[in-house]
Amino acid sequence: MRRVLEFLGLSGGEKGGVSSKEQSKRNLWLVGLAALGVILLVMSGVGGSNSVDKTLPSQESSALQGHEQVLRAMSTEEDQLSGKLCEMLKQVEGAGKVEVSVRLSSTTRSEYAVNTTSGKKTTQEKDQSGGTRLTTEDSGSGQLVMNRNGSGGEQPVVEREVAPQVAGVLVVAEGAGDARVKVKLFEATRVALGIEPHKILVLPMERR
What we know:
Distance between the termini: 87 Å
Radius of gyration: 39 Å
Largest sheet: 3 strands, mixed
Helix content: 40-55%
Number of domains: 3
Number of strands: 9
CATH topology of the largest domain: GMP Synthetase, Chain A, domain 3
Order of helices and strands: HHHEEEEEEEEHE
């Protein structure tokens, strides 16, 4: 350690003159140590920023979880509608084997009953010039209507349920090669789901 300090010129034991060659070596060492310190600081800063970036804010995380729940609910509802429609279309004369795929653009949602109150307050003011100014202030509030369930808890009262929006329906049937059977399957699908004709596609099933 003493030799290193003497080499860097930090030891007070040697007071003699230092040659230019030794001085240049010392300067080179000092520059190298300074550069190494800068590199370590930069690397530690980069590592810290990565650790911060990997941590999602709680709001973004909860929003992502809510989006995943909606997608799972939509997928479940699509499977249920596809199964019910398939069982119904199998009953059509000449349909044979049937497969159905229903795609939704939104899931079933509930609208809850709300008690609303509203009020209006009118104020008449006179200015210095003798004129009159009327100021009207509207106020309102809403509160969910709650109902007690069998377990003693409370739950909001559902006013109505809004049906899911169907994006498209694909029907593949053995009998769809017959034009008459294809029309029957098409009309049955349209009436059962109450959707526009352009959202329905009926195709014949490949014969094996």
